[in-house]
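Annotated sample (chain length 185).
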Amino acid sequence: MKWKVLDSKYHFKTPFGNLRNDTCQMEDGTIIQNYYVNEYADWVNAVVMTEDGQIVLVEQYRHPGNDFYIEVPAGKIEEGETYEDAIIREVREETGYLSDEPPIPLGEFMVNPATQTNKVAMFLINNAKKRYEQELDETERLEVRLFPFSRIPELIQEKEITQFFTVSAYYMAKDYLSRKERNDE
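Output written by the structure step:
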């Protein structure tokens, strides 16, 4: 049975997310004080493949991680957008790549339901072509990096790619492509 929320207070609200403090009651009557919940917007990411089998990634500095990370293009949902609209916009803005084919949904997953409210929707975009220049936000500094799709496991093993959502998106896309290849035979 779901917990009952007895009280809920915000410690702060920001454009990046909110921190909420809940008091909850479990089914057996146990009261849990100070259950902190991070409220974040849902976000999207995509494995973007070019016509010649390259994966389009971005490299950027991430302050909390205090390092540069190679990642799949990603971003949060803006008001009124579908997940598909959001990933097309994010890929275009971050990389300049677009495809004439619609994004293929790979799944929607809770990021960390123990402490966060958001989920990530993962996509595969095939046959992308460079059509635009990047349209980065004022604080974004991204370098577009292309790699052969087959080289990604090596980059993960060598700890060149360490961002979890990039690793999971790669394996989701690889699984999808393997199943599609088997079904096409």
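Annotation: The chain has three helices and eleven strands.
Annotation: Helices lie at 83-95, 152-157, 164-184.
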